[in-house]
Amino acid sequence: MISINTNTASSAAAYNLGNTNVNLQKSLNRLSSGSRINSSADDAGGLAVSMKLSASIRRTEATQANVNNALSFLQTQDGVLKNADSIVSRVSELAALGTDVTKSTDDLALYQTEVTSLIAALGDMATEEFNGIPLLDASSLTVYTSQDAAQSVTITAADLASEVDLSSVDVSSNTGAQAAISTITAAIENLATLRATNGSEQSRLTFAADMLAVNKTNLEAANGRITDVDIASESANLARLSILQQAGTAMLAQANQSSQSLLRLLV
Fold first, then answer.
1. What does the alpha-carbon distance between residue 51 and residue 123 come to, in Å, rounded to a whole number?
2. Confidence (pLDDT) at 120
3. Contacts for 47 with CB less than 8 Å, ≥ 6 apart
4. CA-CA distances (angstroms) from residue 180 to 27, 38, 185?
5. Predicted model pTM
6. What does the pLDDT look like over 69-114, one tens digit per residue?
7. Among residues 81, 2, 20, 5, which one has the least CA distance to residue 252?
8. In whole angstroms, what is the distance from residue 28 CA to residue 242 CA?
9. Which has fewest Cβ within 10 Å: 43, 53, 105, 188?
10. What is the CATH number of domain 48-226?
11. For residue 219, which of 89, 65, 96, 50 has the smallest C-alpha distance?
């Protein structure tokens, strides 16, 4: 049948050209954005998974920051404890000097003056803070080490004021200095325990930070496999669609011209 009102070939060519243009636009969007999924219509299921992975990545990054801040807290705390150790060691030295029977009362009084000053400095250390959080009091802290808050590490309370209490130390006499040595020795042992605990918690948080970094890398890789465009494959697809577009345009023009032959039948 030969018809003027209906040009099936032209309609089919226009339809195919339209589909090619749509796919060509998608290919251009993918290559220009670097993402395989630019709208929910591209891959609804993949987009849903990607959104969950992206949220996990953001939570992992936030958790990393929290763990690193906790590490900074412990490092600052250990710095204070290290200075406290220097003070207690000096008080221990003064107590030992105070047991010297050749020292006069005035000599011992000078030792006691320094001891009193050092104990005051130790008391000041007990009030140190990190961003408004006490470094050395009776409160423990919980640090979450996984992005879903299912895992945590507890920073043990480090109460310097009670664990290292030298308020009773008096080296103004030989007997007082001798009695003070046992008190100071106990304080040194407690201080050593505080620093050892601090070190173990730093080690635990360091491993937690490393694990978070590994998890973040793996999550990003998984998300990339879903959303990232394969440049080589998509470039080949773009070339194919470009050729189809040119061919489709030519065929549509040819189909439109075919109706011109009907004029010969009318002349």
1. 52
2. 96
3. 37, 40
4. 82, 74, 9
5. 0.80
6. 999 999 999 999 999 999 999 999 999 999 999 999 999 999 999 9
7. 20
8. 10
9. 105
10. 1.20.1330.10
11. 50
130 φ, ψ (degrees, to nearest 5):
-125, 105
- Cα radius of gyration rounded to whole Å, the chain: 39
What is d(CA 115, CA 121) in angstroms, rounded to the nearest whole number?
A: 10
Contact 166, 122 (CB under 8 A): yes
Higher pLDDT, 92 or 16: 92
| Boundaries of every domain in the chain | 48-226
Instruction: Give the tokens for residue 131.
Output: 């961003």
Using alpha carbons only, give the angle 80, 82, 87 rounded to the nearest 5 degrees.
95
